[in-house]
Structure prediction request, 137 residues.
Amino acid sequence: MSFSAGGLLNEIGIQSPANFANHANPLVTFGECLLDACKGITNIECQDLIQALAAEDIDALGQMANPLPFLQSFALALSSIRWRKSGIAPPGWTHIGHCERCGPVYLWAAIQVAGCPWCWNRRHDLPIPRPLDVTPL
Ligand SMILES: [Zn+2]
Prediction:
């Protein structure tokens, strides 16, 4: 069964923005932009983007000349959040950073920070992948 972002939009009652016009390629539909935004991201699908976007977001995307870069960044952010909620460092987070609250953590750079994305996991008793053996504070 092939997946159609446009079909999914219709199925859940979301209309492609009436004023959607991808000027970079006028033949590209909004659904195709959603599908393109998820390419190469293993833990996010088009449906996840649709569910995370508010109706106002979709309207605003319809105003953009080319919403694909925004949708790609949004998909990567959702992907990162999903990995972190699962206690897995997102792709590329291979450096050992140090958070004042969490201790040693995997980050996108070897930096020292007052707070980090893993703080949310710590506060919600979710797992934090550790580069070193640490005792929770
Ligand atoms: Zn932290």
